[in-house]
Every structure is written in C-alpha cells, then in structure tokens.
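Annex B. Sample input.
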Amino acid sequence: MDERFEGIILFKRDYREKDALVKIFTKEFGAKMFFIKNFNQANHPLRRHCIPITQQYFLGKINESGLSFLKEGQTLQLFRSIQEDHEKLAYATYFIQLVDAALEDNVANLNVYTILSQCLSLLNQGLDSQVLMVCLEMKLLPYLGIHLNWQSCALTGRQDGPFDFSLKFQGILSQAVWEQDDFRLHISPKTIHVAIILANCQLEQIQSINLGQKTKEELSRLMDTIYQEFVGLRLKGKSYLKQLKQLDEQVQAISNVRKRSNESGPVIDF
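Annex B, continued. Sample output.
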C-alpha cells in the first residue's frame, strides 16, 4: 500500500545508467533509501523533488528493509537562500551528514527530524551558521550515545559559575574544583555560559543570541574537542568547513596587508 509522507532529501546518487538512489530522512519512517527508475531522463517528474537539502511531500511504497519507491512529489521547502549561497550550502551539507551519521536507518525520530528542519529553516533565514552548527552538534550528542552534564557542576552540583568544561568528568566544572582536572579545556566562563544556554534552549529561542567572533570560535573548539574525544566522527562536510575557514583567514590576511600598504602611501619602484 502506498504511503504519504514528508521528508528532507539527504543525497542523490546515480545507479546504473539511467536510474538513481535517493536517501530521504522521512518524518514518519526515518532515513530510507529510495530507488527511482529512469530518474536521469530530463523529463522525469520526480527530478525537481529530489534535490538535496530540500523538504518535500511524497507518495510512495515504504518497505521495512531494502529499497523503497517513490511515485509522486510535492515541494514543501526549497531553502532557496541555502541553495544560492556557497557557505550556507556547506553548513547545510554538514548538518545532514551529521544527522545521517547519528541515526540508524529505518527508525523514525520525530525529535531529530524537527531539529534538522528547524536548523535548515533558520539557516535559510540568515541566522548565524556557526551558532546553528554548535547547537545541532550539542543536541545530537545523546543520539550518538554521549550524555554530558550541562545543567550543574559535575562534581559539586553547583549551578552558579564561573564554569569550565571537563572531558574527564563529562560536564561543566565549577571554579571551586577546577584543580580536580589539570586538563580542563580552559574555555572562558563567558563561552561556557553561552554553551549552557544553547544546550538547554529550544532552537527557536536562539534568534535573539548575538555572539562575537571570539566566543563563536571558542564554542567551535569546545564542540570539536568533544566530538574528537567522545564521538570520533570524520565527516567530509566538517573538513570542508575547516578548509573554507582557513581560506577566509588567508583572504582576510591579504586584505589587511593591502590595507596597511595603502594607508602608508604608494610604493614607488625605481
């Protein structure tokens, strides 16, 4: 029997000469792989509904295991701003890779589906991509089997800061017991305060959060360290984001040199 369902397109890849496999994170059935016959024909009716990082309604046959099949599609959200912006698209690609890695296929998860849908919508609206990335990484940790204490000091139970983060005790650590972990991450108390807010807030609440670049960089270092030590994922999307950041820094450095040169006057060669 055919089912109607909603889904976010994770990726599409060619299969044989004319066909395609499309992986969709469905709201009702979890992440599933769909086979589409003759997909590479220019006039195939499903081509415009299987663009990665879009949200669609579908009619199709759902199988509990193996490949499922699509019959009809209806566009729900194209996320045009993401599709037209190289940097936003890079972040969105990492978002869907991370969700795909965090969840088992064929298992429905309405909470994560809603979180991913919200993240893409907020990114499309222009919210800070780094903050959204940190927030998504935090909220996916429990689905990766990592349960960290963001509510109170892991040793004393105190809820008043200042705090740092301890890998050893898997949570925030109040200043009174910092000496208990010589390898605490030395994240600034301000950044840890922001991390606590992000870990415990709803995604729609972060629209009012405006952070400086130093705080965002510390948040990224915090989450990179947590994922490196506890999760061990090596996703291409995250590596690409780091390459983009390095390129931006190089371009900014060149721009600063040129600006200083212009301010000091023209250079005359003889």
